[in-house]
Write a structure and sequence with these properties.
The complex is a heterodimer of chains A (about 110) and B (about 120). With about 110 residues, chain A is mainly beta. In chain A, about 0% of the residues lie in helices and about 55% in strands. In chain A, the strands form three sheets. In chain A, strands 2, 5, 6, 10, 11 and 12 form a six-stranded mixed β-sheet that branches. Chain B is mostly beta strands and about 120 residues long.
């Protein structure tokens, strides 16, 4: 079984400032890792994913994340945020084989202030 | 990328009625679809796995007689909330994985826009 912990329920940040959203996971097997963004009353949009290879992955909208196996972390970063980045962000994992359902973290609300 | 639609986007119903939510994969076939439930300001919790041609697999604690799932075709799964009650009010989201086994996109899921159910 897998579990995902997002340490911050809310992250307020000023526009054009950098931001990091933290994600740690627990799993007895290797996993694929994902970050999704959810705007109010909408479904989820994939920001980026780590399957294998380079531990630094780049996604859409200027976001990137780094997989750290020793620390079982997959933190999301953006060097300069915009008002439009205000949303809920979810970290998720799934095992490479077998059922492909995602296990989600509790989410982090990114609030970008002018 | 692949597109998943849900219908309706929003539904309000009276307690005791049944509500059907449709999830369609528009440009790809999905032998498996997932149904999630999201309470306000909370994460998504997997309810069940919908399997084309066989019975759905429900997560622990999810009543299969309450939440009926039918995977009618390779592009359509439906979730019926039977005898809905106010505590069933939630945001229901479906997803479908795309890609072939062994392909890098195999574990990538595409989410529908969600259905907001309000039971009065």
């Amino acid at each position: 079984a897998q579990s995902v912990t997002q340490l911050d329920s809310q992250v307020p940040v000023f526009e054009e400032a950098p931001v990091e959203l933290r994600c740690n996971y627990s799993s007895s097997v290797s996993v694929y890792l994902f970050w999704y963004v959810q705007y109010p009353n909408q479904g989820l949009q994939l920001l980026l994913k780590y399957l294998s290879g380079s531990t630094l992955v780049k996604g859409i909208n200027g976001f990137e994340a780094e997989f750290n196996k020793s620390q079982t972390s997959f933190h999301l970063r953006k060097p300069s945020v915009h008002i439009s980045d205000t949303a809920e962000y979810f970290c998720a994992v799934t095992p490479p084989k077998g059922r492909r359902a995602l296990t989600f973290g509790s989410g982090t609300r990114l609030q970008v202030q002018p | 990328g692949a597109v998943v639609s849900q219908h309706p986007s929003r539904v309000i119903c009276k307690s005791g009625t049944s509500v059907k939510i449709e999830c369609r994969s528009l440009d790809f076939q999905a032998t498996t679809m997932f149904w999630y439930r999201q309470f306000p300001k909370q994460s998504l919790m997997l309810m069940a796995t919908s399997n084309e041609g066989s019975k759905a697999t429900y997560e622990q604690g999810v009543e299969k007689d309450k939440f009926l799932i039918n995977h009618a075709s390779l592009t359509l799964s439906t979730l019926t909330v039977t005898s809905a009650h106010p505590e069933d009010s939630s945001f229901y989201i479906c997803s479908a994985p795309s890609g072939l086994a062994g392909h890098s996109s195999y574990n990538e899921q595409f989410f529908g826009p969600g259905t907001r159910l309000t039971v009065l």
